[in-house]
Amino acid sequence: MADLDVLIVGAGISGLGAAYYLQREHPQKKYAILEARGAIGGTWDLFRYPGIRSDSDLHTFGYEFKPWRDEDSIAGAGKILAYLKETASEHGIDQAVRFNSKVIAASWSSEHAHWTVEVEKNGERETLTCSWLFCAGGYYRYDEGYTPKFEGRERFGGQIVHPQHWPEGLDYAGKRVLVIGSGATAVTIVPAMAPAAGHVTMLQRTPTYVLPLPAQDPIRNLLRKVLSEERAFALTRRKNILQQQLTWRFSQRFPQAARRLIRRFNAKLLPEGYPVDEHFNPPYNPWDQRLCVVPDGDLFKAISRGKASVVTDRITTFTETGVQLASGRTIDADIVVTATGLNVQAFGGMSLTVDGSPVNLPDTLAYKGMMLSGVPNFAYAIGYTNSSWTLKVGLLCEHFCRLLAHMDAHGYDTARPVVADPGAPTRPFLDFGAGYLQRVVDQLPRQGERAPWLTSMSYFSDVKLLRRLPVVDSELRFSRSRAVTPVIS
Fold first, then answer.
1. Which residues form the signal peptide (predicted)?
2. What is the Cα–Cα distance from 75 to 85, expressed in whole angstroms?
């Protein structure tokens, strides 16, 4: 008998959501959440850089089962973390979290139909057993951000900071700040630091699509005045889901029109004569990489006020006082912020073994975007890259609970995805051009060219697949181990 029915890894937004669905649908099952850090909240507790916020609206980024009540639709980390803590407390999920517990390895035994999980807790090793292992820790390393090698970095006389390791109390008042990067982190930090800093420069190698959106949702705030909080939230959530999906589909089908529209929004908020095409016109199509959202156009306002600027160029070398660029230009700085991205790490870096054989992730295929071929009773939660992360996580958790119910009803203890045609064509785990994924694409699982081996990025397709269609599939094999006594009815 395993110690736990389900072991959830990660106490961030995905892990807390998984726990809610599990205890709602299967209150009889015993579960625990292992969290490598000392607090819940994941990303929203880890990052402490100025201005950190969501880049999705909280009516879709939040949970379907818990209305987002704050007036801000795009909210800062403090509000999001309070929301997650409140959710965990309301449902007693916080009592199931075991902190400072990092999963090192997990080995599956088909004979006993359970995982043996090796955990490092406060420097000591312990083992747990579970019938199901559910990884909800996202896909990046929490202990280490990505910084490329910069020539001459050691010569720089100022301070270099990575957003993932922001020093408490960093004083940047009146100072020259150089932010290297152009992604969601960079476009958040620049307008947040600009009011107090002397000047903030965002240095990018390649432009990114930046889309201004209202920080507050006027339609939602109007609905709150005439409807109940729950009804207003439900209608706003549906509206925003539809809006996200239509925006993505429009960008996929009419990329040039989408490009022109985004450019028009940018030009309207920037000073007359500003070189929009140099700094905000990427060489790729919209949604080949994630769009960056700026609430109320705060980045463009900082530029217009002269408190921030954008430079599109490449660093040749650091100098004692800043950086020298390929164009020959130099930028002096007191503080350099390397907003250069994440280090991707699949499943928290744990090693997996099935019946004594190590699992090589690139040899596996993603099943329904939530399991791995050949790996029994193992599920994971990876959200959308083209809309709110949590939309997909919620659907995956629902499907997972339906899968458990099916197994209980038929006396199964093992579910193993098996590819019917191992020689079929495959493609990368996620159809996404972000650099942080491209750096490790050969270390990740793959996906197929057809269902159920596709990792869908369409919410409406996933509603059909994960919520409405049966969990039974010809390529998901159910069984009962010999170590389990058959149920006699």
1. none
2. 15
Report the alpha-carbon distance of residue 208 to residue 433 in Å, rounded.
Answer: 12
Q: Which residues contact 81 (CB under 8 A, 6 or more apart)?
A: 41, 44, 45
Mean pLDDT, to the nearest integer, of 38-52?
95
pLDDT at 405: 98
Parallel/antiparallel/unpaired status of strands 176-180 and 199-204: parallel
Q: Is 401 inside a domain boundary? A: yes
Quote the CA–CA distance of 369 and 457 in Å, as a whole number: 10
Helix axes 13-25, 389-410, angle to 10 degrees: 30
CA distance 194 to 183: 17
pLDDT attached to residue 489: 30
Domain with residue 468: its CATH number is: 3.50.50.60
**The token pair that represents 333 in the structure block:** 């700085």
DSSP, res 359: P
CA distance 410 to 134: 21
pTM for the predicted model, two decimal places: 0.94
Domain containing residue 309: 147-340
Q: Which residues pair with 201 in a beta bridge?
A: 178, 309
Query: How many CB atoms neighbour CB 137 within 10 A?
Result: 28
Q: How far apart are CA 205 and CA 11, in angstroms?
A: 35
The helix/strand/coil state of 14 is helix
Nearest Cα residue to 268 out of 280, 278, 255:
280
338, 185 Cβ separation under 8 angstroms = no
Task: Please check whether residues 224 and 91 belong to one and the same domain.
Answer: no
SS3 per residue for 380-443: ECCCCCCCCHHHHHHHHHHHHHHHHHHHHHHCCCEEEECCCCCCCCEEECCCCCCHHHHCCHHH
Indicate whether 90 and 151 sit together in one domain: no
Do you know the residue count of the chain? 489
Mean pLDDT of 362-384: 96
The number of folded domains in the chain is 2
Residue 322 pairs in a beta bridge with 332
How crowded is the C-beta side of 429, counted as CA atoms within 13 Å?
28
DSSP symbols for 434-477: -HHHHTTGGGS-EEESSTTS-----HHHHIIIIIIS-S--TTEE
Q: Let me know whether 389 and 269 are in one domain.
A: no
pLDDT over threshold 60, residue 153: yes
